[in-house]
Each structure stands twice: as structure tokens, then as C-alpha cells.
Write a structure and sequence with these properties.
Shape: globular
EC number: 2.7.13.3
Keywords: ATP-binding, Cell membrane, Kinase, Membrane, Nucleotide-binding, Phosphoprotein, Transferase, Transmembrane, Transmembrane helix, Two-component regulatory system
Strand order of the largest sheet: 2-4-5-7-6
Organism: Planifilum fimeticola
Largest sheet: 5 strands, mixed
Helix content: 40-55%
Bound molecules: adenosine-5'-diphosphate
Distance between the termini: 47 Å
Catalytic activity: ATP + protein L-histidine = ADP + protein N-phospho-L-histidine
Number of strands: 7
Membrane topology: Multi-pass membrane protein
């Protein structure tokens, strides 16, 4: 071979290769850390309910407890909660990898919002709380209605759950040329600014003990973010402690390539 044809890389090129290898190494380490954290979080979430289930099943077996429906129903509830948790984790994983299969069609957006609000109105009214819808979005959007319904139920459900009885929660709708926007405004406790960057992470809870006791999985916001972003939309939060929070969702109206 004619060695004069072989191009010897200069120091600048070698330095660029070294830099890009270093970048890949750092990204790999970061990915590895995230995977390890996820495994630790899942183990932590599963340990307690599984220990409770096991303890109660063992005492049933030893005959310490009567095999009555009221002893069994909470155990069934716990297994349902566990399977929901596993399903939710799976959906978040698919959404993050861009592998969530969306079943999109043209959906009247205002009607979708009405449907979600009707489902949650019962919960709000039980707390003596007004759930108001402001504005209108009488256009169609191209989306997977099941996934968008779930995202909005999670956000509006949180607003209702975190707001004291007697207060209000507002759902504000706006339609623009290329997108629709929904603001979910509550007069709840708000979220401290230092917690906001972590809010959409899996299993993150602002007040760990309180929210864990109330039965939340800590996955609701991660699911909402995964589903909205899979549509090419955005989700954001603005919150003032002591005053309340506003979660804002935007969704493209038309198919995005
Ligand atoms: P959870 O199942 O705990 O509700 P989410 O992912 O839905 O999980 O929410 C994560 C955490 O964010 C909650 O535990 C709560 O601390 C906080 N949070 C979510 N929505 C609100 C809200 N509207 N007002 C105040 N805090 C909220």
C-alpha cells in the first residue's frame, strides 16, 4: 500500500476523538447510575407492601385470623395497587424510550376535558370543593385519548387531593393555531422551589411520609409527563408555597412527524 495516502490524524483531531470518548464514558456512567437508582427505588417501594402481605397471609395460615372477607379484601387491594405500580412503571419506561404505542385519532378536546372533569367532580364535591372549567377549546386534536385522559386525571386528581376542603380547583383551557393549552390551578399548599426540579421524577414525593400513607404511588406526575411528551407536548409547573400550584400542559393539535 502507498503509505503516503494514509492520513495521519493531527493533535487537534486526536484531542477531538479523546473528548468525544470521554463524553460517551460520562453518559454511560450517568445511565448506569440512573438504572441503579431505579432498581433501588423499585426495591424500596415493593419491600413494605410485600412484607405486609406476607405477614398477613402467614397469620391467616396459622389460624390467628379468621378467613373472613373483611380480612381478605385489604390484601386484594394491596395486590391491585402493586400490579398498578408495575404497569405504571412499564408505561413510563416505554414512554422514556420513545417506544410507547399511541393509538391516535382526531378527538374533540373540549369533550375530552368535560369527560375528565365529570369523573373527578364526584371526588371534588365530596370535599365540598368547586371544580371549575374556564375557557373553551372547541377544536379537535390528534392524540391518543386514553393516554391524554390519564395524564389529565393524574394532574387534576392531584390538585383536588392536595387542596383543603372548601377551596377551589380551576381547569383553564386555551386553543391556539397549532396547540392547545390546559392550566390546572389549585389553592393547595404549593411546592417548595427546591423540590420543583425533582417533581416529575419517578417515586418523588414532596412529603414522603404523608403521601405514602395516603396511598399515592409517586408515579402520577412521571406518567403524565411521559404521556404528554410522547405526543410532542410539554408539561410544566409553577408553584408558590402557601398559595398554590399551576400545572400547565400544552399539546400539538396536528400530527407531528
Ligand atoms: P403521588 O402518587 O404521591 O401523588 P405524583 O407523582 O402524582 O405522586 O406526585 C408527586 C408528589 O408531588 C406528591 O407526592 C406531592 O407531594 C406533590 N404534588 C403533586 N401535585 C401537587 C399539587 N397539586 N399540590 C401540591 N403538591 C403536589
Amino acid at each position: 500500500p502507498d503509505l503516503t495516502e494514509v492520513k495521519v490524524p493531527g493533535t487537534d483531531e486526536l484531542a477531538a476523538v479523546a473528548r468525544s470518548m470521554e463524553k460517551m464514558r460520562r453518559e454511560w456512567i450517568r445511565g448506569e447510575e440512573a438504572r441503579n437508582r431505579l432498581v433501588a427505588d423499585v426495591a424500596h417501594e415493593l419491600r413494605m407492601p410485600l412484607a405486609i402481605l406476607r405477614g398477613q397471609l402467614e397469620s391467616l395460615l396459622e389460624g390467628k385470623e379468621q378467613l373472613a372477607p373483611d380480612r381478605l379484601l385489604p390484601l386484594i387491594d394491596e395486590t391491585i395497587r402493586l400490579s398498578r405500580l408495575v404497569q405504571d412503571l412499564q408505561q413510563i419506561g416505554l414512554a422514556e424510550d420513545g417506544r410507547l404505542r399511541l393509538e391516535r385519532s382526531w378527538v374533540p378536546f373540549g369533550a375530552l376535558i368535560d369527560e375528565v372533569v365529570d369523573v373527578l367532580r364526584v371526588e371534588a364535591e365530596a370535599k365540598g370543593m368547586a371544580l371549575e372549567v374556564e375557557g373553551s377549546a372547541c377544536c379537535e386534536i390528534y392524540c391518543d385519548p386514553g393516554r391524554i385522559r390519564q395524564a389529565l386525571i393524574n394532574l387534576i386528581g392531584n390538585a383536588i387531593r392536595h387542596t383543603e376542603a372548601g377551596n377551589w380547583v380551576k381547569v383553564r383551557l386555551m386553543a391556539f393555531e397549532g396547540e392547545v393549552r390546559v392550566d390546572i390551578v389549585d389553592r393547595g399548599p404549593g411546592i417548595p422551589p427546591e423540590k420543583l426540579p425533582y417533581l416529575f421524577q419517578r417515586f418523588f414525593r414532596v412529603d414522603d411520609s404523608r403521601n405514602r400513607r395516603s396511598g399515592g404511588t409517586g408515579l402520577g406526575l412521571a406518567i403524565a409527563k411521559g404521556f404528554v411528551e410522547a405526543h410532542g407536548g410539554t408539561i410544566a409547573v409553577d408553584s408558590v408555597p402557601g398559595e398554590g400550584s399551576t400545572f400547565t400542559v400544552t399539546l400539538p393539535r396536528f400530527p407531528v412527524s
